[in-house]
Amino acid sequence: MELCELTGNELLKKxxxxxxxxxxxxxxxxxxxxxxxxxxHSFVTLTEEEASLQARNIDGNMRKGESRxxxxxxxxxxxxxxxxxxxxxxxxxxxxxxFISPYEATVVKKLRDAxxxxxxxxxxxxxxxxxxxxxxxxxxTRNPWDLxxxxxxxxxxxxxxxxxxxxxxxxxxDTGGSIRQPAACCGVVGLKPTYGRVSRYGLVAFASSLDQIxxxxxxxxxxxxxxxxxxxxxxxxxxxxxxxxxxxxKSLIENVKGAKIGIPREYFVEGLDGEVERAVKEAIExxxxxxxxxLQISLPHTEYGVAVYxxxxxxxxxxxxxxxxxVRYGYRSPETENxxxxxxxxxxxxxxxxxxxxxxxxxxxxxxxxxxxxxxxAQKVRTLIKKDFDEAFQKVDVIVxxxxxxxxxxxxxxxxxxxxxxxxxxxxxxxxxxxIPGISLPCGFSKKGLxxxxxxLAKPFDEEVLLRIAYTYEKNTDWHKRKPAx
Amino acid sequence: xxxxxxxxxxEVHVQLKTKSKLFCGxxxxxxxxxxxxxxxVCTGMPGVLPVVNRQAVEYAxxxxxxxxxxxxxxxxxxxxxxFYPDLPKNYQISQYEQPLAQNGYLEIGTDSAxxxxxxxxxxxxxxxxxxxxxxxxxxxxxxxVDFNRCGVPxxxxxxxxxxxxxxxxxxxxxxxxxxxxxLEVSDCDMEKGSLRCDANVSVRLVGKKELxxxxxxxxxxxxxxxxxxxxxxxxxxxxxxxxxxxxxxETRLWDEKKERTYSMRSKExxxxxxxxxxxxxxxxxxxxxxxxNIRKTISELPDMRRQRFIKEYKLSQYDAGVLTSxxxxxxxxxxxxxxxxxxxxxxxxxxxxLLGRLNTVNKQVRESPVSPGxxxxxxxxxxxxxxxxxxxxxVFEEMFNTGKNPQAIVQEQKxxxxxxxxxxxxxxxxxxxxxxxxxEEYGKGKQKAIGHLVGQVMRKTQGKANPQLVNKILKExxxxx
Amino acid sequence: MITKKEVEYVxxxxxxxxxxxxxxxxxxxxxxxxxxxxxxNELDTExxxxxxxxxxxxxxxxxxxxxxxxxxEEILANAPEVEASHFKVKKVIE
Lengths: 486, 481, 94
Ligand SMILES: [Zn+2]
Description:
- The complex is a heterotrimer of chains A (486), B (481) and C (94).
- With 486 residues, chain A is an alpha/beta fold.
- Chain A has helices at 8-16, 22-40, 48-63, 106-113, 156-163, 180-186, 220-230, 274-289, 305-320, 339-350, 353-366, 372-395, 418-423, 429-434, 463-475; strands spanning 43-46, 75-79, 117-122, 169-174, 189-192, 212-217, 260-264, 293-297, 398-402, 438-445, 451-458.
- Chain A has a domain at 3-253: Amidase signature (AS) domain (Amidase signature (AS) enzymes, Alpha-Beta Complex).
- Chain A has 15 helices and 11 strands.
- In chain A, strands 1-3-2-4-6-5-10-11-9-7-8 form an 11-stranded mixed sheet, sandwiched between helices.
- The radius of gyration of chain A is 21 Å and the shape is globular.
- The model of chain A has no long low-confidence stretch (mean pLDDT 97).
- Chain B has 481 residues and is of the alpha+beta class.
- Chain B folds into 3 domains: 4-293, no CATH class; 302-412, no CATH class; 421-480, Arc Repressor Mutant, subunit A, CATH 1.10.10.
- Chain B is built from 15 helices and 16 strands.
- Chain B has an 8-stranded mixed sheet with strand order 6-7-10-1-11-12-13-14. Chain B has a 3-stranded antiparallel sheet with strand order 5-4-15, with no helix packed on it.
- Helix content of chain C is 35%, strand content 9%.
- In chain C, strands 2-3 form a two-stranded antiparallel ribbon.
- The mean pLDDT of chain C is 96.
- At the A-C interface, α9, α10, α11, α12 and α13 of A face α1 and α2 of C.
- β9 of chain B pairs antiparallel with β3 (86-89) of chain C.
- The complex binds zinc ion.
- The site of zinc ion has 8 residues of chain B, from loops.
- The site of zinc ion (ZN) has 8 residues of chain B, from loops.
């Protein structure tokens, strides 16, 4: 077995026993990248030299017996919308193709301080807008379980890299499901923390009130480990919350006895793929068998989630993406006559189709005469959706749903039908609107061999209950141990 | 000719005197090399987030209270979206719904003719960068952007359309500036750009209810320019109405050299700022207790101080008004009075000598080369009779030019007053001898002739002789004749 | 739902140069999306407060302390065009 196939926690134990070095792990990961990256295209930028140097430094420090961070020597891939100082941050966009960040995201700084080794920047839908990683200026990423299928999105590169052992751990961002849905598509574990749990400073904003950074891992334990490193208040982010961060690995207890699990009827309706439904129901039965109590609940405004999301997110995005104008950094259209044209051509040429579509939608929703009918209306329905969850969590500890209505779809299948593409986020979007945490973990495979994801949702700042139930489920199944044949 | 009335509303932007910017830690210092007080936050790099400067909010609330505004318990920031190269994010973090303060007023004019101008709202927002179109005299084939100023906290103070004349607009601005300076929240220096003002102006027939079509006038760089631009606009609009031309709602720029406004036709689109609540920032909540604590930090405001000056120092309305029209001047006055307790005398010296000299060299009170202590010392020398009033003026001139202490100047230049009666008698004898005509005239009853003789004595002593003694000795001597 | 003229207006507001083909496509696609979004009108939200933020935070401040800025060359490093230590753009006409 190659080192790259192990989990972060397994590698840390081996390093502790001095059986292996970080340099060996990094070499193993890069060997794997050299083997499969041309098939998958998980990365936009690889930083092998810096990674090797980092690994050697950490090995040196460990030999000297210096104190080690929680992730000392473990490879982590970073989605290309988070800034690593002096490394390109492209957001998979032409408009930021050559942008080299002069500063570091808080999450990256925390990972660096914990001894993580940065393998590279992963591919994504341009500016995190998409559910398939097909909207990348640098080309699509393929699903390691079947190369004709999408890996999910927008953090498709991070999910693929973890699933195919091109990295040990990865970081993604989730605005409407962008961690959980690709985790489901690729058969790995992905967690979207509570809004405010992880600092957004240095995460290139898509929709500020919805964006949240989170971890990918091969199992729940690795995800808990990453949560310990990246969580916490940051004075550079006014929306990060100053609450105590628990030791998440302590919540990894194999016990769900008495846990109350809600099953929302609105998630098991027409449009849900039969294989997905069966797998999720079997997972629920297993949890019951392990001692959890299940009850039917209702989240009555679920069906409005997509409509609310596709007003709020594009509106915020239309302002967030206004800064890409070719004045201070990024692409600038080469031949223009005047300032207006300089702006319009730079942005017209620099952004891809989906990004432009959403900027248009958001600009329209905020424009004079439409604000009340669209943006304000969406904010009000958002209140109703949040209330649904508040009420549900009075009765249950977690809510169980499928992560996505189907397994991964074929590359190109929904490219020309944005609305159908948007509807594939239907089960993940509400968690972002309500600001609550959610996790996706493997719970089966379709006949075609594509992974199926189980989503657990909890009340704000209760990631611990998610981790405990996910961990218990995982300990009693072996879906997460399967590897794609590449 | 029909009678028209003018309706003016002013939008004033003042920079708050914080050390660091509104949303990042960059310095607000004026005059640094371009793009050196800049960081990822204030240049709008991908991924950055704003964090509000506490001091800026407190200055804003303090200003709002001094302007008699309501400070709602909750206010929020909003994004104002428009593309401009001096605006890095291409949105400005400002306020829209739920501003920091609203419904206040400012009292302008004197006690006999007081008037309230409404303050509709006060917003806290970030300043934009600076555009350069030429380097020195060299024209550039583009525009250059410096973001040093970008993100400096601004207070946007929007008046109600209560101002009825360009002159009233001038008074409003000087009063507002004075208050903000008293609060020490802003320098309000138009030359350095720490105060800027745009004006909305329209005219209508007297008695008409609905407002006329307004023009927004921009690009004025002094209060006088604002007054002139408004005067020009009012005349232009009345002329247009008289000749039955249509007035269009537009932005007009003031041309300082030609003393006229012209239409900014290049504006190719209507404003559609797409305001929405800033999701990167959380609401500002002003608890009652915090507001009261801030209220306590408000020192005496100009009007209160003026009243006090009249009562405490027995000054005239006019003198008290001039002295308190500038906080620095009023502070100066009070410091002099503290060590030389003769308010009337100090008033004369400060208003005539000090302000006169400062005016001719175009300096502010706080740049005065003569400190309040030095002026007090000078007045004491005069009081003790060491120098005469006339000599004191010479000494003051020297102090102003060199910054030296009055004692030193008096010694160096041997300006000590001659009070020795023998010495004066000797000079009087000389003068009487040299001016027999005047002596004769005096003898014939022409009292005035004595003035000439006194002048001669003073000339001989370079003004150092004690004038009272000279008078006394001369009279005694002439009577003996 | 949305006209081509509105698409052009919005594209100008957003400073996006669109080809004729894109204008046609977006007119259709945005129309479809807005039609879907109109399902929100089924809900009576008259008495519902809007949520712009899920957090219950307020008054998050930093103290008024000067922190080091970036070096001039770091700020300008990514600029497409620089002159005399300034960012340079096409002439702004006022
Ligand atoms: Zn800054």
